[in-house]
Prior knowledge:
mainly beta, SH3 type barrels, endopeptidase fold (from Nostoc punctiforme), 12% helix
Amino acid sequence: MTVILDRRITAFRPDLAASHLRGQVKAPAFAEPQPMRVVAASAPLRREPRPDAALDTEALAGELVQVYERYEGWAWVQLAGDGYVGYLPDDCLRADAPAPTHRVSALRTFVYPGPSIKLPPLAALSLNAAVTVARETGDFAVLSDGGHVFLKHLAALDRFKPDYAGVAERFLGVPYLWGGKTSLGLDCSGLTQIALAAAGIAAPRDSDMQETGLGTAVAFDESLSGLKRGDLVFWKGHVGMLTAPDTLLHANGHTMDVHREPLREARDRIRDKSFGAITSIKRLG
């Protein structure tokens, strides 16, 4: 029996593979993983080690990655969270970065060089980025690298927002970006993954993986009745989330942003002009 491995989430190339894949794939060399963390606000995970290569996804600050190769400014990695494989800029990673203690709960927050909002910010962190808090001073959390973040924009790693549809709604109007996962730009499955993560629900990265791996199927007919807030609606290559039984929220290339619209109107347009018919509707919980 031939097993087909998904290259998006399997660390193997014709010349190199992860050591745990011995016996599953053929490669001239196998590499042991080196754990490192993302120290940039966000880092582009690209399909090839080139700045103009396709953006497959983004890794957020504090995210753990397994590094299998570092060469000429690029690291070939697998993200520990969703397993995605690709190339990150090497200068975005550190092996000695401390484990995070908190995550960003605001849509986006600034990192300041000191405890004042009047100082020029050093960086901007998006929702779910993870940081290490060394201490608190007034309204600020002082990070392990000396940066200061507004304390109320952070949450402990084990504190989640149960209304993931409400989290997704906070991204209304954010531009569509293929492979994006931040409040500067994100795609349909990135929006779903980020919103669910804020609620403590791990989700795969791409819409086909989410359709297979999340929730239970909901029966539906042409009327699209009986649906609930939070249901995920899938097409072949697209996903959206219901914020009401008849309202779809999705990052899409039609409006080029995160947009909310009547579900039936979206269903008809998508069916006729892009991804075809709805393939499934999934309910979580």
